[in-house]
Amino acid sequence: MAGLIAEARARARQPEALVLRFREHMAGHGLTILGPPADTRIDFPGGSAFLTLEPGGIALRIEAAEPDRLADAKSTLAGHLEAFAPEEQLGIVWRGLGEGGPVAGDLGRRPHNFRVARVARVVEVTPRMRRVTVTGQGFDRFDAEMMHVKLLLPEEGTGSGTAPEPRWPVLTASGQPDFSDCALARRTYTLRRVDLARSELDIDFVTHGDGSPGSRFALRARPGDWLGVAGPGGGNIPLQGWTLLAGDETALPAIARALEAMPAGARGQVLIEVADAAERQPLAHPPGMPVTWLPRDGAAHGERLLAAVRAVDWPAGRDQPGTASAWAACEAATARALREHFGQALGLPRGAFRAAGYWRQGLAEGAAESGAA
User: Fold this and answer.
1) Per the domain annotation, does 46 fall within a domain?
2) Whole-model pTM?
3) Are residues 89 and 128 in the same domain?
4) Helices 67-84 & 15-28, crossing angle to 10 degrees?
5) How many CB atoms lie within 10 A of CB 301?
6) Which residue has the higher pLDDT, 101 or 134?
7) What confidence tens digit (pLDDT) does each residue in 228-237 have?
């Protein structure tokens, strides 16, 4: 039985639509969704979240076995609901009780999953991808199956390596990070490499000019620059029989890590859409997982990826549990089309496929919380 409980209420003009959006997002990351929208349960490692529709809002409840799991779930649930309703004041204030009585207040403390980091070095992987290696203390929490982190990027002073340490978020009385006094952009990325012996993390950035905070940070980053790292979050990539891995350049770090972790005898196919041939990069992969690169060369984002996925020759019995699986990450509209293809056209069992929207066409980076980018 869960030892810790947190409860809150979110005010919303359209609570059912908000719950449906949250369910879709969590399902895209492989979490188990139970019950109808009016009485939703979402299971995560170490606990469960419950969302119950009420007049004019949503009753929220989290049950978790450990304080870290409870704090992670509170941040994830409140953060995503607020991101999906940016023009509303949801008014989420957590109240929590554990086995030993009230959970201690965290007013003024930094979030439990937050770590201060500094840039160690920067390498150009391809013309449009830069690898930023960061170093810091307490990175052991990132040695987990969950691959995504939230980066807190200073908006000012980046690129000199000598800027003063930024103001970092602290927790409010309700246990939520307060960014009101922080000049920080928040973006979700996938960890490309975790080296606990050297206290290093590698993060690959797709660069596309100065128009977005992530690309701007990567282009200007110099050794010594500050940034914050919070997490980890998100899920891992399942391996059930014959496996398809597919995505655009934003999915490359996750696909590369998954291939490196697979057994030598793994079988399946890898499809990666990139801007052009210059964006190909060496990937270690099992012999039975051939990698096919799909240069857009001016085509619309997702067009060639979707066509290639639809042309895949799947093994017989793919609709039987454990026979085949699929994982994809790309632009949000393409991800929806892939989910429909995996579930409806192919009939893959529920839980045997994921398709996450890592970014959304037409919106500025970070305008929608959609995974990692």
Assistant:
1) yes
2) 0.80
3) no
4) 120
5) 18
6) 134
7) 999 887 766 7
